[in-house]
Amino acid sequence: MCLAIPGKVKKIDGQSAYFDFQGHEYCSDVSLVGSLKVGDWILIHDGRALSKISEKEAKENLDFIKEHEAHAHSH
User: How far is CA 68 from the centre of its chain?
Assistant: First the structure.
């Protein structure tokens, strides 16, 4: 299963953005997304931001990921 994760943009450096995911900072290529600002939410897959998403959508995705992680660890 391929998974895209939501991340909140913390810093932008040219075509790269540093984002937070579950308390860890990562870097992503954001050249496909267009204009971004610190605080925006992005959807990332394989090191590339695919799109900008709403905070509501990001929270729903994070909840989904947490539920599936908990389920995976219980088996």
Answer: 16
**What does pTM read for this prediction?**
0.83
The Cα–Cα gap between 25 and 65 comes to: 17
Q: Which domains does the chain have, with CATH numbers?
A: 5-73 (2.30.30.140)
Other Cβ atoms less than 10 A from the Cβ of 41: the count is: 22
Tell me how far the alpha carbon of residue 26 is from its chain's centroid. 9
With 0-12 CB in 10 A as exposed, 13-18 as middle and 19+ as buried, what is 7? buried
Cα gap 34→72, rounded to integer Å = 35
Task: Give the pLDDT of residue 72.
Answer: 67
Identify the band that residue 38 occupies on the pLDDT scale cut at 50, 70 and 90.
Answer: very high
Q: Which two tokens stand for residue 71?
A: 């389920």
Q: What is the mean pLDDT of residues 31-47?
A: 95
